[in-house]
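Figure 3 (text version): structure tokens given as input.
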């Protein structure tokens, strides 16, 4: 009897050893999941942040007219800068692991690409190796990948960085124009005297974004923090308010006065003006004979950025002279508010390049002039659902159609 009991104990000891070994394997597996998987997810997030940053910076460069080769270089540089930051040292991304694709459709990166149309960029980084802690015991390699798509949004329906001026627009667009405005043509954005504007007399195409000349001044300098909804009406601000208008707009040329400072309202990087300035007659007809315009400004601004520009370059920001201007239907005024204030329905947002400095006095009763351009970026706003290459837009990230994880 005792002999059988001793044998049974020895058998149980052997079974216990097997169970303990199996339990250790299971625990090791859970350790691999808890440590290695969390480690992989952390670095996946870091890599995704790097790719998102690279894609957005590339979209900005494409939007500014840079060629694809320089954009590719900027992507590699952006990824290298992010992965070299503290905490990201383990992410060693080789150039061969980076795939860069351009498209005119954020949902299709397999077709032809035209640089002159809306441009979207897809940045994908594949199979970046990470250190293994426990998964190596199971013969499993740990790799992370990430991708991002960035480019212009659909046209904006809710804009938050417009200027308090308005232009009268047609109710529809033609084959060669947008709401009656021709691309590349110079228009008056704010009139200088009575009879020049289609608006009700006493209004010079200024909008009421607050109260008083100080609000006009800071808003035109770029200090308006409110938003404009295209479904609402715009209230005019009667009177010329010439001095504050000029003081606000001219900060974009590096001219500062009153309470406006360069620290708060930086100038444009390119402050060049045409040799022959635009003028306007008493009937509101604009005359501009100089050939210099927005396309020249963009080409010269590249020289300002890389240090090869002329004396017109300043330590400022690119395209501070591009204004998002509400376009209103002047054919249906509502002056029931009294005091000369008129309400006009907002039709769209127009993009204008400030061709020259604004007047700061009534001498000559000159207007504010801007060249109508096809599109422009905005700081903040809500987009519509229909893609369009006209009007204001913003640069944003899109869901990558080739990856469910982006």
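Below: residues designed for each position.
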């Amino acid at each position: 009897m005792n002999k059988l009991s001793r044998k049974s104990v020895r058998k149980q000891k052997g079974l216990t050893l097997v169970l303990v070994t199996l339990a250790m394997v299971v625990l090791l597996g859970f350790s691999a999941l808890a440590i290695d998987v969390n480690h992989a997810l952390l670095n996946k997030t870091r890599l995704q942040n790097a790719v998102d940053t690279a894609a957005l910076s590339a979209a900005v460069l494409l939007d500014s007219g840079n060629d694809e080769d320089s954009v590719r270089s900027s992507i590699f540089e952006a990824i290298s800068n992010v992965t070299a930051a503290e905490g990201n040292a383990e992410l060693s991304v080789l150039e061969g692991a980076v795939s860069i694709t351009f498209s005119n459709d954020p949902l299709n990166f397999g077709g032809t690409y035209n640089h002159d149309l809306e441009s979207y960029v897809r940045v994908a980084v594949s199979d970046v190796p990470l250190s293994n802690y426990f998964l190596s015991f199971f013969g499993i390699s740990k790799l992370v990948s990430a991708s991002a798509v960035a480019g212009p949004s659909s046209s904006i329906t809710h804009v938050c960085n417009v200027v308090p001026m308005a232009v009268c627009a047609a109710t529809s667009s033609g084959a060669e124009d947008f709401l009656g405005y021709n691309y590349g043509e110079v228009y008056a954005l704010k009139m200088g005297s009575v009879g020049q504007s289609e608006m009700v007399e006493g209004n010079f195409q200024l909008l009421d974004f607050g109260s008083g000349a100080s609000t006009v001044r800071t808003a035109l300098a770029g200090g308006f923090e409110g938003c404009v909804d295209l479904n609402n009406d715009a209230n005019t601000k009667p009177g010329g308010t010439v001095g504050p208008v000029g003081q606000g707009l001219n900060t974009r040329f590096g001219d500062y006065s009153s309470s406006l400072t360069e620290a708060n309202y930086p100038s444009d990087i390119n402050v060049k003006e045409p040799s022959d300035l635009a003028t306007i007659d008493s009937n509101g007809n604009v005359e501009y004979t100089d050939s210099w315009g927005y396309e020249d400004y963009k080409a010269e601004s590249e020289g300002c950025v890389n240090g090869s520009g002329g004396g017109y370059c300043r330590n400022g920001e690119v395209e501070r002279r591009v204004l998002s201007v509400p376009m209103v239907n002047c054919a249906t005024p509502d002056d029931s508010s009294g005091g000369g204030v008129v309400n006009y329905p907002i039709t769209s947002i127009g993009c204008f390049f400030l061709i020259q400095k604004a007047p700061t006095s009534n001498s000559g009763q000159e207007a504010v002039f801007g060249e109508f351009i096809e599109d422009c970026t905005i700081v903040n706003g809500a987009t519509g659902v229909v893609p369009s290459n006209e009007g204001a837009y913003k640069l944003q990230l899109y869901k990558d159609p080739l990856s469910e994880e982006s």
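The longest helix spans residues 2-63.
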